[in-house]
Every structure is written in C-alpha cells, then in structure tokens.
Design a protein that fits this description.
Layout lengths: L2 E7 L5 E5 L2 E5 L1 H7 L1 H8 L10 E2 L2 E6 L3 H12 L11 E2 H13 L3 H15 L3 H7 L10 E2 L7 H14 L5 H11 L2 H5 L4 H12 L1 H11 L13 H18 L14 H6 L18 H25 L5 H12 L11
Parallel strand pairs: 1-3, 2-5, 6-7
Antiparallel strand pairs: 2-3, 4-5
Helix pairs in contact: 1-2, 3-4, 4-5, 4-7, 7-8, 8-10, 8-14, 11-14
The structure holds zinc ion (ZN).
Zinc ion binds next to α14.
C-alpha cells in the first residue's frame, strides 16, 4: 500500500513520516536535533493511541508535502554527504525541495546551504561574471536543470520559492532569465493565481530592458577627440552596426547584459604588431578602443544597477542586506559588492 524508500527506512527508527503514498522510517531524535519544528512536535504530549496512526506499532506523522521533496529533505538530514555546499553539483529539484522544507520545518543549516547553491547561480558581482566567461552571463553553473538551460517551469519554481522564503536577492537575475528564456506568449498565458503576478512582472520589465538594450548601442556613438584615424574608426563603427543588423535577427531582443562580451572586445583591439585591411578595418585605434569600451562598461553597469528596479525590487545594496541578514552575516561591510 505504501512505498518505502531505500536508504530512508531504518528498522530501529522510532518515527514514520508519510508523504503522499511514500513512507520513511527514521530516528525521532535525529530529526528533532536538526529541526526545531520536529523537536517542538515531539515534546508535545502524545495523542491518545486511538487517534494515532500506527504502522508496525510505530507512530506515523503525515506531512502535506510532495513525497519527492520530503525524500531529498530527509536524505540531506540523514546523510551528511548527500547535499554538499557549492560548487558541488546538485539537481535543481534537490535544491528547491530542500530549500522549501528546510524553511518550513526550520533546519537552518540546510536552508542556508540551498540558498548558497542558488546564490552561486543567480547572484554574483557583475564584473566577475561578465569578464570571466566567454559563454555569456548565463553560462550554466553547477546546478543541473532538466536541460542545459532552465525551462519555464523550473524558472518559475525558483522565482516562487525564493519569493516565499524571502530570498529576494536571487530574484533580479531569476526574473531576467525568465524574461529572456520564456516566450512572451507563454508569459502572457500564465494566468494561474500563483504565476500571474510573476509573469506580469517579467512582462512589465520589457520596456526598460529594451531601452537598456538600445542604450547599450550608444557606445558606437562615442566621439573621441584624439582619434588616430577617424576614417578607419568610423568604418569599424559602421561595420559593427551592419553586423548587428544582419547577424542578429531581433536586435532589440538581445539580452543587454550579454551584448558585446569579452570576445567582441578582443576582435576590435588592434595589436601594435598587427595590421588590418584599410578598406574593411575591424579594430579601433587605441584611443577609440579605450573610450568606446569605457562607454560600454558604463552603460553595462548602469543597466546592472537598475536591474532590480525593473522588477519592482529594492536596489542591490538593500538586497545584499537582506541576504546578509538571512545568512546571519554582519551588514556593516561593503554592501555594494554585487
Ligand atoms: Zn579612433
């Protein structure tokens, strides 16, 4: 009638946890030592035997949670090597199941560990993320999704659970991912009470994200007084513009934080020992290179700084205070690191 889970059924366990049609037999004391919810429950006077469900004479506690979440949660409590801190690879379903139930049943160290995993994927300093990978700011990290990139359901799961547990610092990038990974028609069709608030928030950021993307192209308008060869540098600007219009199907849909990454700047840099085609130059003079890159960096930083506001969230420094409070860290340090 019930399914017992391998590795979570101990003959000497004094408590049976039931979730859906799955049962787990574990140590009451171990669970109470890890979870204040269960320790409070266990010290309550027991129910009269007639009201108590028993399996093999062992009391049963029924949880309303999905069995798959309870399974990963109990595994993480019982097996200390099962849910290691990042960068150890983990499945997204494990992270979210453990995050949700460690919050609900008050297991502080697992709650923080699950948030550390999500923070590594969705919360990072701009400069480090942008410069360290040529694969884009969205390069997959150590969290394993069902495919190489998170799908709609996974992204909305992340967003809803982080919102529920107060991990707001993860939300700007989670919304940003959702906006660029989910078709607008799909966002518009998310009308369930649970999803609609978040899908509308993503859609309402559209104007600001497109504007940021447009602004990002302004770096091509940078005028440089001490340009060494204005004819050549203007040809480079025109070449980049033509490339953008032909190579990218929908230039306005380019994710602003992902435009003009490090490999682009390598292409427009002219090594002093190299030469280039005079009629079709690809690299700026040294002064235009630095001035143009400075403008781009400024625009990128501006977009990053405003990203949380696009999704009606507080700024990064306030989000960092929330993160430090949850992790019990001092908030007196540099909160502008992200
Ligand atoms: Zn120049």
């Amino acid at each position: 009638m019930y399914t017992r889970v391998h590795g979570l059924w101990f003959e000497d366990g004094g408590l049976i946890i039931k979730a859906e049609s799955t049962i787990f037999r574990i140590s009451k004391c171990l669970l109470a030592a890890r979870s204040t919810f269960f320790s409070d429950m266990i010290i309550l006077p027991p129910l009269p035997e007639s009201d108590m469900e028993l399996i093999d004479g062992i009391p049963v506690v029924t949880l309303p949670d999905p069995a798959k979440d309870v399974e990963v949660f109990l595994r993480a409590i019982i097996d200390s090597s099962y849910f290691m801190p990042p960068p150890k690879p983990v499945q997204l379903s494990e992270v979210l199941g453990i995050l949700l139930l460690s919050h609900k049943y008050d297991v502080g160290y697992l709650f923080c560990r699950a948030l550390e995993h999500l923070s590594m994927q969705f919360y990072f300093p701009l400069a480090k993320a942008y410069r360290s990978s040529k694969n884009g700011i969205e390069a997959p990290c150590h969290i394993k999704f069902s495919s190489t990139q998170p799908n709609t359901s996974e992204l909305f799961h992340i967003i809803k659970i982080c919102k529920m547990v107060g991990a707001d610092w993860i939300l700007p990038m989670a919304y940003y991912y959702a906006y660029y990974h989910i078709q607008q028609a799909d966002l518009l069709s998310m009308t369930s009470e649970d999803d609609e608030y978040h899908s509308r928030l993503c859609l309402s950021a559209s104007r600001n994200l497109i504007l940021s993307n447009l602004k990002m192209f302004y770096f091509l308008k940078t005028t440089v007084d001490d340009c060494l060869d204005s004819r050549q540098c203007n040809l480079v600007r025109q070449g980049i513009w033509s490339y953008m219009l032909t190579a990218v199907q929908e230039p306005l849909d380019v994710a602003p934080l992902d435009s003009f990454r490090e490999d682009f700047w390598e292409q427009v840099w002219l090594d002093e020992n190299s030469s280039q085609d005079e009629d079709e130059p690809s690299a700026f003079c040294v002064h235009c290179y630095h001035a143009t890159k400075r403008t781009h960096d400024h625009l990128l930083r501006d977009c990053w700084d405003r990203l949380p506001f696009f999704f009606c969230l507080p700024g990064w420094s306030d989000l960092e205070v929330v993160r430090q409070t949850v992790f019990g860290e001092s908030t007196s340090g540099n909160s502008d690191e992200v």
